[in-house]
């Protein structure tokens, strides 16, 4: 037979000529990879320049406890987000009940709340003097803390509770799409073969949704590991805490970089292991046309018609309602500051930085994905994966790596200009907000790359190859065929990056130039003086501004036909 | 919100949007009549003093607030660093800046005349600007008037009654470092184990929430910095803080020499200060009577100027007798203290 031989040749042929045909693209990708790997490269250099003298102490007194706490936190948060995310996604897709459409976009709202603000709000809300315990005491006539037991928010479980409630939308978003696209069809086949609904869900729908759930949970996992604000505030000491005590309290930046590198390797291994575990599985997606013939939702009535919406409202009320309530109350007392020039400039800085970052990050992600697809080069793929793993590192640490790299670059340019052109350029990147944008772009590349890639995987394969077989160049066919189909996925990615940049604090505060406040740094300036209340207006603004694109995104989600979302 | 306010808000927003674009133009490190400040101190806290400086000298101030990595940033920026003056709390951070080589020596007659020798680096790399005492907040209802020493914090009679913020925080580390200097590492570690056993709960939050915890009955005594009491007592925005402050009284714990642990906030001249003359003027100004008075009255810290009285509210706490231990002694024990906190597991709380 000639067919296999033909297809073999077809698969092998694009290899060599491809790279020769696109020297421009290859150079661009190499440059992008180099920039994206700057912070991790700088950190790796720092790590190997250290002596390792911190490790005896770390190994004996820190790692055993901190590693256990980190694992507990990761497991609890991942499980929490998986359960909330999958359950809410399934309910909004499979059933029809009052307020379903409203709830299906409201469920994304907690994404707008930065974990460090959520931790503060939850502590205010659930601690002794908060409304919950006050009501509880009034109800049972208790006086002091010693009279009764109440779960402590300042614990590993408490931190996981907070994190799960603001991070579950990642899982909700990714899983919902799969349920919308194919879940029901497969489910109906299983049903006609006699499987019970519960069995259908656990044996058919969950396994099919696994890549989507994993994609969402990996984002949660990385956000959990890079978190320092929430866990620090709630007194939870993780490996990330150890990075900071080693760096700041024991003046060993090298030791801190070493811990960061070890954590990075572990995250890489964890994600690689998951991918390896499902290496034999293939997930084919039906064409988008099938979506339109999706079977109707099951209409619920009676008690369920009240219970279901109430259950779905709960995560929104907690993850979004509680922070808005707490900061709203403080903000109301300071409402006269709303016309404050400082606040206005922070708002403008935040929005502008987030918008530029979203644009840059999405473009970069598209470029890298296109390059990987085109070249099928494994090294490029691994480099891109590695770079996007920077998301798992705390912003300060990524920021620090980038600071050394960029300032080095700035100084080189300056030295060159001084020697050859007779003037000083100063610090071009680190002296402007450019460094902040670069840092956020690198930090959130994982979000954009993951989002667009999963959108791409949902498209029928070889769509653009059809165009190529008709004579279009690879880049042209990707641009004309794939890009329009990917538009929803690209929007989702852009919104996620925009929102995360709005929330970003630690890299921004380290890299920003003089006089540059974002809403997040403004909140922090107050928080660092132990008066978070004074930052309440800014905190509320972060949440509200981040809500706008989230709502736009979820409106699109509410229209089920948007299959690629 | 009235129409006028909303129009004002819009106007500001428009102006701000234009300004936001300017942030992408690199910052000019050196300029006429400007001093660039890298600060670990919160901008609002230093604003009154800086405004007075500008009023007196006509030199404008640019402040960059960082929470971590200030020294590393200056180090990375190298010769092009725009930093002129470093402002920070905690002696260890000042000595760390010196050790990292991001400061330069300053031998200035005015500063040296204003500041007692114990409040500046012998080599002139840092200068104290204010003092704060690490004191005890005690419940008015449940704790008597007897004095409490630092050593007694490990006494089992306080079991389950002490609150504090993280043992790894600067303020606690400095106290533990002082303890190591006074008692030696071995004795301090025993004491720290006792302190941990006496904790009412896992250390967390800042200093103010410890006062709140006392009000709530979670604990009877807590470690905290002196100025927070004044700030809580005068917080008009959030009157609940006044209630926290009303629930506590101040005790000055002491070491065996009768002194209370005192930390400083300070200033240093950055190594490559592009506006060196203005930077020196600022450091001079911070040590003057005028600046000291502002610090004392607005943020309730103890002045370093000899003979200058603290604010009336601070005076009402009682008289502070500062520990005479040299500040450099405290700073050099920081790493040992930090490792000890991990080893003892202070931050794990009482039970484990």
Question: Can you count the beta strands of chain B?
Answer: 10
The helix fraction of chain A, in percent, is over 70%
CATH topology of the largest domain in chain B, anyone? D-Maltodextrin-Binding Protein, domain 2
**Spans of chain A of 5+ residues with little confidence (pLDDT < 50)?**
1-20, 287-293, 560-565
Q: What is the H/E order of chain A?
A: HHHHEHHHHHHHHEHHHHHHHHHHH
Q: N-to-C terminal Cα separation of chain B, in Å? A: 52 Å
Q: What oligomeric state is this?
A: heterodimer
**Helix proportion of chain B:** 40-55%
CATH architecture classification of the largest domain in chain B = 3-Layer(aba) Sandwich
Overall pLDDT of chain B: 91
Largest sheet of chain B, if any?
10 strands, mixed
- Average pLDDT metric of chain A: 82
Highlighted features:
heterodimer; A: 565 residues; MetI-like fold; two-stranded parallel sheet; 1% strand; disordered N terminus; disordered C terminus; B: 352 residues; alpha/beta; D-Maltodextrin-Binding Protein, domain 2; 15 helices
Short description:
The complex is a heterodimer of chains A (565) and B (352). Chain A has helices at 3-12, 15-21, 23-49, 55-94, 100-106, 115-126, 131-140, 156-192, 197-226, 229-233, 239-249, 253-277, 304-333, 341-375, 378-388, 395-420, 434-443, 445-458, 463-469, 474-503, 506-511, 519-527, 536-558, and strands spanning 95-96, 298-299.
Structure overview:
The complex is a heterodimer of chains A (about 575) and B (about 350). By secondary structure, chain A is an all-alpha fold. Chain A has helices at about 5-10, 15-20, 25-50, 55-95, 100-105, 115-125, 130-140, 155-190, 195-225, 230-235, 240-250, 255-275, 305-335, 340-375, 380-390, 395-420, 435-445, 445-460, 465-470, 475-505, 505-510, 520-525, 535-560; strands spanning about 95, 300. Chain A has a domain at about 50-305: MetI-like fold (Orthogonal Bundle), CATH 1.10.3720. Chain A has a two-stranded parallel sheet. In chain A, helix 3 crosses helix 12 (about 255-275), helix 4 runs antiparallel to helix 9 (about 195-225) and helix 5 crosses helix 23 (about 535-560). In chain A, about 55% of the residues are buried. Chain B has helices spanning about 5-20, 45-55, 70-75, 90-100, 110-115, 170-185, 185-200, 210-215, 225-235, 240-245, 275-285, 290-300, 310-315, 325-330, 335-345; strands at about 35-40, 60-65, 85-90, 105, 125-140, 160-165, 220-225, 250, 260-270, 300-305. In chain B, strands 1, 2, 3, 4, 5, 6, 7, 8, 9 and 10 form a ten-stranded mixed beta sheet that branches. Chain B has 15 helices and ten strands. Chains A and B meet through helix 4, helix 11, helix 14, helix 16 and helix 21 of A and helix 1, helix 2, strand 2, helix 3 and helix 8 of B.
């Amino acid at each position: 037979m000639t067919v296999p031989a033909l297809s073999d040749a077809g698969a092998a042929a694009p290899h060599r000529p491809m790279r020769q045909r696109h020297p421009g693209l290859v150079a661009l990708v190499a440059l992008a990879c180099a920039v994206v790997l700057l912070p991790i490269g700088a950190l790796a250099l720092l790590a190997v320049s250290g002596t390792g003298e911190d490790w005896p102490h770390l190994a004996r007194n820190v790692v055993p406890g901190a590693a256990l706490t980190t694992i507990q936190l990761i497991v609890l948060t991942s499980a929490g987000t998986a359960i909330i995310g999958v359950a809410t996604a399934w309910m909004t897709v499979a059933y029809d009940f009052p307020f379903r459409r409203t709830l299906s976009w409201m469920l994304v709202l907690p994404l707008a709340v930065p974990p460090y603000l959520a931790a503060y709000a939850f502590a205010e809300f659930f601690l002794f003097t908060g409304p919950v315990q006050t009501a509880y005491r009034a109800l049972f006539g208790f006086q002091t803390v010693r009279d009764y037991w109440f779960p402590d928010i300042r614990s590993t479980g408490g931190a996981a509770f907070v994190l799960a409630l603001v991070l579950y939308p990642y899982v909700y978003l990714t899983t919902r799409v799969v349920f919308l696209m194919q879940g029901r069809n497969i489910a109906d086949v299983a049903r006609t073969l006699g499987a019970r609904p519960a069995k259908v869900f656990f044996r058919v729908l969950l396994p099919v949704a696994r890549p989507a759930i994993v994609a969402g949970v990996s984002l949660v996992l990385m956000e959990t590991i890079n978190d320092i604000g929430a866990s620090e505030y709630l007194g939870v000491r993780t490996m990330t805490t150890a990075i900071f005590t080693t760096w700041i309290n024991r003046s060993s930046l090298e030791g801190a970089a070493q811990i960061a590198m070890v954590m990075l390797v572990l995250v890489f291994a964890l994600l690689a292991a998951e991918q390896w575990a499902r290496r034999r599985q293939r997930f084919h997606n039906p064409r988008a046309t099938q979506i339109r013939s999706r079977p109707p939702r099951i209409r619920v009535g009676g008690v369920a018609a009240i219970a279901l919406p109430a259950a779905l409202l709960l995560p929104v009320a907690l993850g979004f309602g509680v922070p808005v309530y707490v900061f709203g109350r403080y903000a109301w007392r300071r409402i006269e500051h709303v016309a404050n020039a400082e606040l206005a400039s922070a708002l403008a800085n935040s929005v502008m930085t987030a918008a530029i970052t979203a644009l840059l990050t999405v473009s970069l992600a598209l470029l890298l994905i296109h390059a990987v697809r085109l070249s099928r080069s494994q090294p490029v793929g691994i480099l891109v994966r590695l770079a996007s793993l920077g998301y798992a590192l705390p912003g300060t640490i990524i920021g620090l790596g980038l600071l050394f790299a960029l300032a080095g670059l700035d100084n080189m340019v300056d030295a060159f200009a001084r020697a050859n052109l007779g003037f000083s350029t100063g610090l071009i990147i680190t002296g402007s907000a450019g460094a902040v944008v670069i840092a956020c772009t690198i930090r959130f590349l994982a979000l954009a790359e993951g989002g667009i890639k999963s959108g791409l995987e949902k498209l029928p394969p070889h769509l653009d190859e059809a165009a190529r077989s008709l004579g279009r160049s690879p880049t042209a066919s990707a641009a004309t065929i794939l890009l329009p189909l990917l538009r929803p996925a690209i929007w989702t990615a852009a919104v996620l990056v925009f929102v995360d940049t709005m929330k970003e604090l630690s890299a921004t505060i380290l890299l920003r130039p003089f006089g540059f406040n974002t809403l997040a740094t403004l909140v922090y300036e107050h928080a660092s003086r132990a008066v978070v209340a004074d930052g309440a207006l800014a905190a509320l603004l972060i949440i509200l501004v981040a809500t706008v694109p989230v709502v736009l995104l979820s409106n699109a989600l509410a229209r089920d036909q948007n299959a690629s979302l | 919100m009235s129409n006028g306010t909303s129009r004002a808000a819009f106007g500001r927003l428009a102006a701000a949007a234009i300004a936001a674009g300017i942030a992408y133009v690199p910052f000019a490190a050196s300029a006429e009549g400007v001093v660039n400040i890298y600060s670990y101190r919160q901008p609002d806290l230093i604003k009154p003093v800086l405004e007075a400086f500008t009023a007196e000298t006509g030199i404008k101030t640019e402040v960059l607030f960082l929470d971590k990595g200030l020294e590393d940033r200056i180090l990375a920026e190298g010769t092009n660093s725009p930093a002129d003056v470093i402002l920070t709390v905690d002696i260890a951070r000042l000595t760390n800046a010196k050790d990292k080589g991001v400061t330069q020596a300053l031998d200035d007659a005015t500063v040296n005349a204003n500041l007692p020798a114990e409040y500046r680096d012998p080599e002139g790399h840092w200068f104290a600007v204010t003092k704060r005492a690490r004191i005890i907040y005690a419940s008015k209802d449940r704790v008597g008037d007897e004095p409490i020493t630092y050593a007694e914090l490990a006494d089992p009679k306080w079991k389950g009654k002490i609150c504090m913020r993280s043992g790894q925080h600067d303020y606690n580390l400095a106290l533990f470092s002082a303890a190591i200097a006074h008692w030696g590492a071995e004795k301090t570690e025993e004491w720290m184990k006792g302190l941990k056993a006496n904790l009412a709960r896992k250390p967390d939050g800042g200093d103010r929430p410890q006062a709140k915890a006392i009000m709530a009955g979670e604990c009877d005594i807590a470690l905290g910095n002196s100025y927070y009491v004044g700030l809580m007592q005068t917080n008009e925005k959030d009157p609940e803080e006044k209630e926290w402050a009303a629930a506590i009284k101040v005790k000055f714990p002491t070491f065996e020499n009768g002194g209370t642990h005192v930390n400083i906030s300070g200033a240093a001249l950055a190594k490559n200060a592009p506006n060196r003359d203005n930077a020196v003027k600022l450091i001079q100004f911070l040590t003057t009577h005028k600046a000291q008075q502002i610090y004392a009255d607005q943020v309730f810290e103890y002045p370093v100027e000899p003979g200058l009285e603290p604010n009336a509210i601070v005076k009402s706490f009682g008289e502070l007798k500062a520990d005479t231990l040299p500040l450099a002694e405290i700073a050099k024990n920081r790493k040992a203290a930090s490792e000890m906190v991990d080893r003892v597991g202070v931050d794990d709380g009482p039970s484990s």
